[in-house]
Amino acid sequence: MSTLYESDPRTQWFRDAKFGLFIHWGPYAVIGRHEQARSRLQIPQDKYDQYAAQFNPVLFDPDEWVSLAEDAGCRYIVITSKHHDGFSIRRSRVNDYDMRRTPYAADPLKMLANACARKGMRLGFYYSIMDWHHPDYLPRRVWERNRSAEGADLNRYLDFMKEELRELLTDYGDVAFLWFDGEWEHTIEEMRSLETLQFIKQLSPNTLVNDRLFKRQPGNPADFGTPEQYVPATGVVGIDGKATLWEACMTINEDSWGYNKYETVFKTERDLIRKLVEVVSKGGNLLLNIGPMPDGQIQDEFQTRLKAIGRWLKANGEGIYKTTASCFPKLPFWGRCCVRESALYLHVFGWPVDRRLRIPGLKNGVLSASLLADPCCALACSREGQDVLIQLPEQAPDEIASAVKIQLDGSPEVLPFEIQPDSDGAIHLGVEAGELHTKFGQQAKLENVLEHVFITNWNRPQDVPTWTFTTPAEDRYRVVITYAVNGKETDGMGEMEIPALAHYSIRIDDQDLPGKAFSTGRLWVFKSFEVGEISLGKGQHQLQVFLTPGPNGETMNLEKIVLEPIDQAVP
Ligand code: GLC
């Protein structure tokens, strides 16, 4: 991916936009069981066609959809033109598996494109390379015995795909993106990805293309990366180690992109707003998904959440849109930083108990500091060593995320942030000062309750909180971990109600501490446990906590780890 992205005029609007709405819509909405219902339920083609014949979005109002995106603060929309089922939700000249199979007379994509054009909303098209309907696409699903693959020719399919792309790029106005997916069954060569990219560039040079056309391989020529269902720990870098353009896509519900009437778990407004801030602070965009109902309505759970994000962005958007990634690798409080020229926007999630916001290692002079919510009221600033301290009011203006704007005397210049021992020599590793390394399907997240900031919803081994810290001298430390446990476990009676079968362990550099078993509690009673002792040399260290899941889906609520010096350090 282009590493000169910071100055590329083609992608400028995308870098400024930060927030887009993803829409997964097609005949699968009729079934209401996930966009991959055809495969997951092993529905034969002729049966699936009957659902397609019922796709009749009589209540679809494209202006309402675009207004919803606007109200949410989204600056662009990406909609599935064709998902894995091969169905094109438009009227095509080359794909006869399209809206002509339905009672609906019009072309929903054209209607949406027109509404977007009217309202100045950018629009892009998702396109699945994998196609479970086209006779030439290979391979067939393993269970699909009655659909012969005889005479099928993947190359002929790719020619067809190009013609579909041509229609998308010429009949629907300006196309902001082609957002490819369903690439995993073939190599880049088999898919003729470079040829497709060149074809797109010729027809529509400003259309941005995502990295899935190139199987997300490092160094690929696409415009942006697409981490899915997680926030990368430290943003996304290319093979040269430089930051690249990326967009995290995420569902509002648990894991259905298409309409799923059986999904009952939805991310909270606070979680979604904080995720948006986190993504933007790491230099990315957030593409948040909705799966409209088959009749064209959008369920309330999506609407209320999108509108809540929009309300937050109305008040705080100055610190989101057109910003660049944080200039701080880490902050000592729970929050995130976005930068806009010589202004810092510190989005504070956890209001500091002492009401002092510490900005670490800031070399610049501070011209002014204020809350975005109350710009006229100047906040007092002082210096403490290399840090700047901002005096905050008693109450956070927004319980979810409050933005503090700091006007500097020039472009931000900061010293590298290092976690160091406090005056007693203890090293405090709070979850806010670590990085949560996670992968597809992220569940673990930071939360706060009263004065505690902690990782919650953590029950997968692939989620690994990680800290980097520095010790001034060789020393021996007692490792003490604090997490919320089952209330029963804390009353001193010994017995626990729930068998503790999940457990965690701690790795410091290459030394392992076995940790303990834990159970899931309904109470958030934070308790500290001594895990063991460890010797550490002078210098930089890494500490990670690993989780071995138990059979009951136990979730760990980790607040912090403290390394207490045992002997007096001799510097
Ligand atoms: C995954 C899903 C697919 C969905 C896509 C969105 O690849 O399998 O159904 O469209 O995510 O990024």
Structure description:
The protein is an alpha+beta fold. The chain has three domains: 9-319, TIM Barrel (Alpha-Beta Barrel); 335-408, Golgi alpha-mannosidase II (Immunoglobulin-like), CATH 2.60.40.1180; 427-565, Jelly Rolls (Sandwich). It is built from ten helices and 27 strands. A seven-stranded parallel sheet has the order 5-4-3-2-1-7-6. Strands 16, 18, 19, 21, 25 and 27 form a six-stranded antiparallel sheet that branches. Strands 17, 20, 22, 23, 24 and 26 form a six-stranded antiparallel sheet that branches. The chain is globular and about 80 Å long. Alpha-D-glucopyranose binds at residues 24, 35-36, 181, 228, 249, 257.
Task: Give me a quick take on this structure.
The chain is of the alpha+beta class and 571 residues long.
Radius of gyration over alpha carbons? 26 Å
Task: Classify the fold: give the CATH topology of the largest domain.
Answer: TIM Barrel
CATH superfamily of the largest domain: Glycosidases
Bound molecules: alpha-D-glucopyranose
CATH architecture of the largest domain: Alpha-Beta Barrel
Mean pLDDT: 93
What portion of residues belong to β-strands?
25-35%
Helix fraction by DSSP (H/I, runs of at least 4): 10-25%
- Major sheet: 7 strands, parallel
Give the helix tally.
Answer: 10
Care to count the β-strands? 27
| Number of separate domains | 3
Which ranges are low-confidence, i.e. pLDDT below 50, for 5 or more consecutive residues? 487-496
Structural class: alpha+beta
